[in-house]
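Batch manifest, entry 17 of 40.
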Amino acid sequence: MKIALVIKDYSIFQGGAERYAVDLSRALTEQGHEIHILANRYEPDGPSGVRFHPVRMRSKPAWLKIISFSHNAGKIIRKEYFDVVYALTQVYPQDMYLTGGGVYRHWMRVRYPFAPLRWLAYLSRPIHLANVYLEQRLYKEKNNRIIVANSLLCKRHVEKYYRVPESRIRVIYHGVDHVLFNPHNAAAARSETRRAFGIEEHSPIILFVSNNWKRKGLSTLLHALGLNRSERPLFHLAVVGRGNPKTYAGLAEKLGLSKQVHFIGHTDDILRYFGIADLVVLPTLYDSFGNVCLEGMACGLPVITSSSSGASELIRNGENGYVLNNPTDHKELADLLRLCSDPGRLKIMGRIAREISLQYTPARNALETVEVCRQVVAEASKPNKHGARKYFKNRDTHA
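Output type: structure tokens
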């Protein structure tokens, strides 16, 4: 099949969605499909055989960036011939849409629980209106055939907010590259990296990875560590990803954690930090999946994440990690961290986490995705109550 993947940035060095796009394109190419990438930015040294279509996007303001990308990607989609158009970002029309960023209306409710403040945010920040504007349109049946949810959590939100029938939703969990993410690769620079930060070999380290520290719950994690600062062993915390450490460094100092918290910043070598860690913690306010959790599991690390993360569906409490019921409850998180104080038990949980992660591979994800693509192509040949979309007019029905 000739499959178009649409994403703003195509890169293994960005966030989870961007890395997922690369992994999926590689797996689909290996299965013999013709893959086209529609992106504003991409790495030319991606998988061989992949064709790129540059999509223009305004640099600012933020709301116009996402609107212009969707508009210009749509023009390419209507002009070119593809068997299937799979949008990994907010674009319409398309055949399949991945809820990789979750449901924006739900995120706004999480961020602004008080309705008047939420409406004020919509009115004062056009970026919120732009996201909801696109979201409302891309879920319409005339602009989409199948919604791919990367967790049951997201599936429920799509059904709740947009009344999408269950028949139009497929749940496909992300996969992780075990050739890259594994305990052996991760541990290669463990001792060297720990020495660079002045952390002794036996001191346990929590890894927090995110490019949105507020949304992913860094404050909750710091407060939990503050409650446990008199406990032994004393956890160190490595904070990886883009963010402004000033506010959080001040909070760490206030909580008496200055010597325990290490702000790494953005890195192109995330394996190095999985390698120094003993536990991954992501008390996120909302995450459709949370690739970092699965990557940590693949590296042999237990995971604590919140029930507001789709990755929590892979966690078996007490076996390969724990699920935090309330992402803002630092006391609950402090209790869970105390359950992870035994190094020997952490290693056992890490081995189980690794075993569970082996079920989730890019190849499995690609096979399940291709099955949905075949359903889409078959459905495209049937009469549609909304009429054939323009870019379907020359579609073949073979897969």
